[in-house]
Predict the 3D structure of the following.
Amino acid sequence: MECNRIAIRNFRNIEYADVSFDPGVNILVGANAQGKTNLLEAIGFAAIGKSFRTVHEEEMIRFGADCAEVSVDFSDVRRKQNITVRMMKGRRRHIEHNKIKISRVSDVVGIFRTVLFCPEHLSLIKDGPGERRNYLDVAISQLYPIYLKSLQRYNQILKQRNQLLRDAEKDRSTLDATAELWSLQLAHEAAVIARYRKDYIDKASRVVEKCFQEMTGERETPTMTYLGSSKQEPDAYADVEETERVYQKLLTENLEREIAAGSTLWGIHKDDIEIAVNGRPARMFASQGQQRSLALAMKLAEGEVSASVFGENPVFLFDDVFSELDTARRNYLSGKICDRQVIITTCEPSGIAGGKLIRVENGTYND
Ligand SMILES: Nc1ncnc2c1ncn2[C@@H]1O[C@H](COP(=O)(O)OP(=O)(O)OP(=O)(O)O)[C@@H](O)[C@H]1O
Ligand SMILES: [Mg+2]
């Protein structure tokens, strides 16, 4: 997969830009607050319909403007394609794929595949489970559109069910029938999602082990294991119907506890990935450096799993990560990415192997 060109209007501090990229390494270089991350955000936004920095769409529209547009030309092994996103204040955004309107954002995910890596990801291991779930959701959604659909349905049902549980304190009249229906639907989506998450973690875990050992020269073995909130053995998730029954049971048998808590206590919104080194939880026992190596390996794994599913690499977007890494990890990462397309932002390009240099100044981009 290759990002060939991006044209932008009124996105963040970019009034207008038209930037072409090389098939290999591209380095966006400039002082602070010039628009390096903004350009990467625009690319990522076109790819997954979501910013990695904000959930508020209007923040991305240039101050003083009413609408913004991002248009990305990219190509996969088969053909050239385009995704264009238009945002208008107070209106729903408009998305086109090859000039054909796409009505739901989720339909665009997975067409232009990217892996974003920013300094915050370096604390994936010690962060809370929400960050690791987000890592899974972004990675898997780009591989399997059906996963994202399930996840959206799940979140919608979860919201309604939580409201019902809160209301049940005062009024129990509609509780039983509605709660049962939503529990069944929730259990079904949970089982589907759990199956995808487990499969992904199995695949990624092998890459993480390889990358970690290459990077550190250590013989210690990292593992990633799926920790579903249904407390099934990790192997059990392969059987979707069995998982569904486990979730159903949890959701129906514990209704009183959930009413007291005012929220749904079991489900894939509570999942985590257990990351261990030689069997010991990395969050507690791995050194700072090991934790960073593991996080970096998880991001590289995201790319490798995508490449194994589609037979081609995604586009890597690296926001300022090189400055956060020591020389050994920097060299390792440089070696890993030299044969694929990567768009890197940095204030200081020395130490990053070759490539196309794009100078960034006050929202403008020049070769
Ligand atoms: N909606 C907006 N309209 C106009 N400018 C904006 C908007 N949102 C952010 N900015 C500006 O964009 C600039 C930040 O750009 P960006 O985050 O891309 O910087 P950067 O080059 O990555 O810098 P650093 O090296 O510090 O990470 C800031 O000056 C900020 O005020
Ligand atoms: Mg930045």
Q: What stands out?
A: The chain has a mean pLDDT of 93. The chain is about 40% helix and 25% strand. The first helix runs from residue 36 to 48. The pocket of magnesium ion (ligand 2) is lined by residues 36-37, 320, 345 (CB under 6 Å).
